[in-house]
Amino acid sequence: MATYIDLSVHIENNEHTDHPGGSPKVNYLTHDQTAGGLSHFFPGLKPEELPDSEGWAVESINLSTHNGTHMDAPWHFHSTTNYGKERAPTIDETPLEYCFKPGVKLDFRHFEDGYLVTADDIEKELTRIEHELKPLDIVVVNTRAGEVFGEPGYVDAGCGMGREATMYLTERGVRVVGTDGWSWDAPFNHTAKKWAKNRDPSMIWEGHKAGREIPYWQMEKLHNLESLPDHGFMISCFPVKIKNASAGWTRCVAIIE
C-alpha cells in the first residue's frame, strides 16, 4: 500500500511565514454567522428554520501567489528564457508532465544559514545517496529552514541554491525543483551583506535568474522533507492554473510505493 507524505504548509494567519507585511490573511465565517445570509437566496427564510440554525462555513483570503507552498514559473524570474530566444512561460503554461515525476532529496540541513550551495556540494550529496540524476527528476532541497517554518527568523533561515547549483541541475534535464526555505536563493539578508561589500549585482537572485538561460519551475515553502527517503518516491505538484501568472499554489505530495 502506498504511503502519502504531505510536503505542503498551511495557508494561515501567521506573520512569520513571510517577510513583514507579506503573510496571507484568512477571514473565517462560521455556520452561525452566515445563517441569516441565506435569506438573500431564499427571501423570508429565518435562521431558526435551518437545521440546527446553521448556515455554512466559508472563508475569504488575501494572499499572493507566492504565499504558502507554491510553484514559481519561469515568468517570475525574467520575461525571457532560453538565452533570450523565448518568452518565459507563465504558471498556466506549465507542462503537466513535469509535475508528477520521481523525486530526489538533497539533504543540506548541515549548511549554515545563507550558505550558497555549489555544484560540488550537489555531486557529493548525489554520491552519498547513490543516485544519478535523470531528466525530469524533481529535486527537493532539505535545508535548516524547514524546522523553523512559521517561527521568527524563518525567512532568514537555510542555505540557498545559486546560479552554479541551479545550472548543474537544469543542464542535466531537471525542470522542477523545490526547497523548504522561503526562497530557492540564499535568504536576502545574507546576500545583502555580501553585496554591500562588493556591489556585485550578479549575486542578487542568481538562482532564480538562472532561469533566463534554461527554463525551470521552482517550489518554495515545502515542508516535511526530513520525512522523505533520499530517492525512490514520486512527487505530485500540479500548480493552480492562474492565467498569465508568475506562480500558483500547489498541494505537493510525495508518494512511496
Q: If you had to describe this structure to a student in words, what would you say it looks like?
A:
With 257 residues, the protein is α/β, with parallel strands linked by helices. The chain has 2 domains: 25-62, no CATH class; 70-256, 3-Layer(bba) Sandwich (Glucose Oxidase, domain 1), CATH 3.50.30. The protein is 16% helix and 23% strand. It has helices at residues 31-34, 74-77, 119-129, 163-170, 188-198, 206-209, and strands spanning 3-6, 25-29, 58-62, 70-72, 80-81, 86-87, 100-107, 116-117, 138-142, 160-161, 176-179, 217-220, 231-236, 247-249, 253-256. It has a 9-stranded mixed sheet. A hairpin with a 4-residue loop joins strand 5 and strand 6 (86-87). The radius of gyration is 21 Å and the shape is elongated. The mean pLDDT is 98.
Rounded to an integer, what's the Rg over CA atoms? 21 Å
Instruction: Characterize the largest beta sheet: strand count, sense, and whether it forms a barrel.
Output: 9 strands, mixed
Q: Taking all residues together, what is the mean pLDDT?
A: 98
CATH topology tier name of the largest domain: Glucose Oxidase, domain 1
Number of strands: 15
By DSSP (H or I, 4+ residues per run), the number of helices equals 6
Task: Please name the CATH architecture of the largest domain.
Answer: 3-Layer(bba) Sandwich
CATH top level assignment of the largest domain: Alpha Beta
Number of domains: 2
How far apart are the first and last residues' alpha carbons, in Å? 6 Å
Low-confidence stretches: none
**Overall spatial form:** elongated
Helical coverage, percent range: 10-25%
Give the strand order, joined by hyphens, for the main sheet. Answer: 1-15-13-7-9-11-12-4-14
Report the β-strand fraction as a percent range: 15-25%
CATH-level-4 superfamily name of the largest domain: Putative cyclase
- Strand pairing plus helix content: what structural class? alpha/beta
Q: Topology as H/E string? A: EEHEEHEEEEHEEHEHHEEEE
